[in-house]
Sequence to fold (154 residues):
Amino acid sequence: MNSINALLVPTFVSGSDSFSNLATFGVRCAQSLAVRRLLLATYLGGTGLLLAAALDIQTIILIVAFACCGLWASPRLSSRSSAMVTPILILLNLICWREAFLALPIAALTIALAHRFSVNQNCRDFLKLSGIVGASLTLIVILGKEVFQVLAQF
Fold:
C-alpha cells in the first residue's frame, strides 16, 4: 500500500495545473535570461571588435596592463593615499581625453582602481563615471577622426 501512495503523490503534483504553470514560467524566465545574456555578450563582443579595429595592438596591450595594475594596487593603497590619488585621476580623465592613446590607459586604470578603492562610495562612483566619460570621449575622437578621413577621401 505504501508503494501505491508513493507513486500517486508525484503524479498528482506533476499533473496539477499550478505545477505546470510554475514549470512553464520557470522555463520562460530561463529563456529570457539566456536571451539577455546573449544580447549583452553580442554587444560587448561587437564593441570589443570595433575597439580592436580602431586601436593598435600596442594600445590594447597598454590598456590591459594598466587595468591589471589598477586591480592589483587598489586593495593595497591606504585610505589616505587613495584620497590623494582620487582627484588626480579625475582631473587626468577630464583633461587628457583628447590625447587618444594616453587617455584610454588612464581611464582603464581609473575604473580598475575604483573597483576596490578605500574611499567612500560617492568618490568611487565619481571615479567610475570620470573613467567612462574620458574613455567615451576618447573613442569618439578616435572614431570621428577615422570617419572624417574616409569622408575626405571621397
About this structure: The two ends are 87 Å apart (CA to CA). The chain has a mean pLDDT of 77. Residues 17-54 form the longest helix (38 residues).
